[in-house]
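Regression test case RT-17, inverse folding.

Input:
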């Protein structure tokens, strides 16, 4: 058994004394260390910020996060911290780009072949404190004019900061001059929001109980209301539509107890019932009537022929007046009417003996 060196054969006489890489004359990192004698190691380098390539004939930007196979090499030290150089080749133009680490400012610096894109991040924003280096402090001590300019700028900044702090203190004192009133306003706003949340939660729970839903329902949004407004409910207003014709033909010829729409008892016994309850009862009765009509249409054998699709020129026996455009149009219309009337099937269809 080779253990962790599976696939790397070591002869028995050298096992435990050397490694397979030394026996084969190879480096442990493989092709990445082909320039290890020059102190160069190939690594995967990711661009820390966007840069402009100065070698390309046209201005070309290399975005942040683009990765390259870079040659890593130590080029110096900052005290005891090494400074590394990452040299990579831009495939678009074939030029070389070199980026070095800057331990002093904890940043990356473009050394060759490109320049950093100015995004405004290096500018000093409001509220930020600039830490001066030793060279800048020494220059301010030796140059009186530079020290005076810095002093004037610091005074202006201190005055602006003081005014801002005073404004914030005034606003705070105005809002919290009466702590009881401020607390009362907060509790009142929270109480109103809590009642709205409880009402919406009760409506949601009621809907889940009525629909037997075992999932959590999200709150209604404006987009949901807009989409729901596109849906139309109600009877078929067009009497010539196929659905309206089928429903009319499925109704019994002599309405009896099954075809008479009865008024719900709840509405009769409650003359002052709410409109919501009346609308609910009306919808229930409408659903019952539709179920009875559909059941009768599916089970009644005498309606099999009546439920067949009608011709395009027949609509419940209605004869429409036509404007004849030729001498033979009136005769053709009369013939078509006689054909439709001849196809009417009686209520009872049986052979006489």
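Golden output:
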């Amino acid at each position: 058994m080779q253990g962790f060196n599976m696939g790397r054969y070591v002869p028995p006489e050298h096992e435990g004394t050397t490694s397979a890489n030394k026996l084969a004359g190879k480096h442990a990192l493989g092709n990445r260390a082909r320039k290890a004698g020059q102190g160069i190691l190939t690594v995967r380098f990711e661009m820390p910020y966007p840069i402009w390539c100065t070698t390309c004939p046209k201005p070309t930007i290399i975005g942040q996060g683009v990765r390259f196979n870079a040659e890593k090499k130590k080029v110096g030290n900052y005290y005891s911290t090494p400074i590394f150089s990452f040299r990579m080749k831009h495939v678009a133009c074939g030029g070389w780009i070199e980026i070095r680490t800057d331990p002093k400012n904890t940043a990356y610096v473009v050394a060759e072949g490109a320049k950093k894109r100015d995004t405004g991040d290096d500018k000093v924003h409001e509220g930020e404190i600039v830490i001066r280096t030793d060279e800048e402090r020494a220059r301010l001590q030796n140059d009186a004019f530079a020290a005076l300019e810095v002093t004037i700028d610091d005074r202006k900044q201190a005055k602006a900061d003081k005014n801002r702090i005073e404004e914030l203190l005034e606003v705070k004192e105005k809002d919290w001059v009466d702590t009881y009133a401020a607390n009362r306003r907060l509790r009142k706003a929270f109480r109103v929001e809590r009642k709205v949340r409880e009402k919406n939660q009760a409506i949601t729970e009621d809907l889940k109980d009525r629909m037997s839903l075992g999932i959590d329902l999200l709150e209604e949004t404006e987009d949901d209301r807009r989409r729901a407004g596109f849906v139309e409910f109600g009877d078929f207003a067009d009497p010539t539509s196929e659905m309206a014709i089928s429903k009319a033909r499925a109704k019994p010829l002599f309405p009896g107890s099954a075809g008479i729409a009865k008024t719900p008892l709840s509405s009769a016994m409650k003359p002052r019932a709410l409109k919501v309850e009346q609308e609910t009862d009306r919808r229930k009765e409408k659903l019952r009537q539709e179920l009875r009509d559909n059941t009768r249409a599916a089970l009644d054998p005498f309606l099999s022929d009546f439920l067949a699709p009608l011709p395009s020129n027949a609509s419940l026996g209605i004869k429409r007046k036509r404007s004849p455009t030729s001498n033979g149009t009136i005769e053709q219309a009369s013939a078509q009417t006689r054909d439709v009337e001849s196809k009417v099937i009686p209520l009872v269809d049986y052979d006489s003996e």
